[in-house]
């Protein structure tokens, strides 16, 4: 009996957490995001003029973030004409540049004060936010949930 109660309580807690996370993402979707801003570019500066911006909040010490780089490289390869993917880290330039593997094919920048992350209430990484060329948030969540087909749908529906 105690095991059943414990399992039920755990499931209710997890479901509540999942709905809270979904609500947090939904409160941004369809609304204007902040003006895109970073302190320093590690790569060349992204050309965001007239493009969608996919902000990838990450860190070199974050295993899931690093493992997600090949996925982001694939998205960049397929959508680079319409979408500027920018990896934003709160770490120092030296830390980001020291990470050699895997190679990031998309843009990289530093926001040590976490202004963009604070606006979007980023509490865990990896996390991505997609904004349209007018700055409207189209999607927010874990990068694993943003497949090629999902991204294609988002940028062709807006």
Automatic annotation (TrEMBL):
PANTHER family: PROTEIN DIPZ (PTHR42852:SF13), THIOL:DISULFIDE INTERCHANGE PROTEIN DSBE (PTHR42852). GO terms for molecular function: antioxidant activity; oxidoreductase activity. It comes from Pelagicoccus mobilis. Residues 1-24 form the signal peptide. This is Redoxin domain-containing protein. Keywords: Redox-active center, Signal. InterPro entries: AhpC/TSA, Thioredoxin-like_sf, Thioredoxin_CS, Thioredoxin_domain, Thioredoxin_ResA/DsbE_sf. It comes from the Bacteria. The keyword Signal applies. It holds the Pfam family AhpC-TSA. Residues 27-158 form the Thioredoxin domain. Gene3D superfamilies: Glutaredoxin.
